[in-house]
């Protein structure tokens, strides 16, 4: 059930307007620098109107050009460069969407096959922290070239225990003070049965500590400085937890569930994935198996809005654009999901703004 911002339930449904910008895969003109033809994927945009008593809104979902990733994740909006950075996890690629050019640039990280997240490093214009396997590395990239180079390894976790051999970093993000929070997961085998993941914190100067163990799939992260809260998702728990958070020390305590995605039958449970937060303190929870991002008031647990997409596997979201009022959303095309799965989208017309995302303090 949806609810108005006042908390009243919306019983009237949506009017969907599907705008097919391309109705099937087609072949474009040959690239001037290559002999092969360029095959473009299906591109779908979506306009949604919500109407109820004394309340109406519409939002628009549009694809970014040439933005496909098999497992798109980790969106980070860089205010300085007016660019969205994100990754394609299982192939070790990093992406940059340039807002002013309306263009996506891609790079393969040299000698790497995994990239869990990408975060710009404070004080630089071309260095990024990237989760690569169980390491966090510093990558040098100008944001244009097709290859990015590894400068060094910042730290590595879960060494010396065979249980962790198939673990990798998944989602990562910095708190407003620039501390890196990033978590691991088992990516070969059953993550629900083998909860070998951990959530880590890295502080400027190199101190690394475990924030939480017994993690299945470490995922979404968000902070609210006004209320001194930290939000965290372990996908295998089917819920979002809220912590009291000390911004001076980076300590998270007193977890409690603020959004439960379990259904009546386990096979119907929704899988929460990445997450972001707006200036009003509402959290936006992506669902890997639900076609939807849920806008949730964590004070009540009420769903304020369901943001729908033309593909199933919604992985994460970040506010960006010149006014931080565009919601950028990554998706996945794993397990044979058809086009337009894997497209990265922008959502406009939500009437909400995000917070500037912090760069990493090294």
Architecture overview:
Strand 8 and strand 9 (83-88) form a beta hairpin. The protein has no helices and 30 strands. The model is unreliable at 1-40 (pLDDT under 50). It has an 8-stranded mixed sheet with strand order 8-9-10-11-15-14-13-12, with no helix packed on it. It is globular, with a radius of gyration of 20 Å. The protein has strands at residues 2-3, 9-10, 14-20, 26-27, 39-40, 44-52, 55-63, 72-78, 83-88, 93-98, 103-109, 118-120, 127-132, 135-140, 147-156, 167-174, 180-186, 197-203, 207-215, 218-224, 229-234, 239-246, 251-260, 272-277, 283-287, 292-297, 302-308, 314-320, 326-331, 345-348. The protein is mainly beta.
Kindly list the characteristics that best describe this protein.
362 residues; mainly beta; eight-stranded mixed beta sheet; six-stranded antiparallel beta sheet; globular; disordered N terminus
Return the average pLDDT rounded to an integer.
90
Radius of gyration, in Å, reads 20 Å
- The end-to-end distance, rounded to whole angstroms, is 44 Å
User: Any idea what the shape is?
Assistant: globular
Going across the biggest sheet, name each strand in turn: 8-9-10-11-15-14-13-12
pLDDT under 50 segments (min length 5)? 1-40
Instruction: Give the number of DSSP strands.
Output: 30
Tell me the major beta sheet: 8 strands, mixed
Strand content: over 45%
Q: Determine the structural class based on helices, strands and strand pairing.
A: mainly beta
The helix-strand sequence is EEEEEEEEEEEEEEEEEEEEEEEEEEEEEE
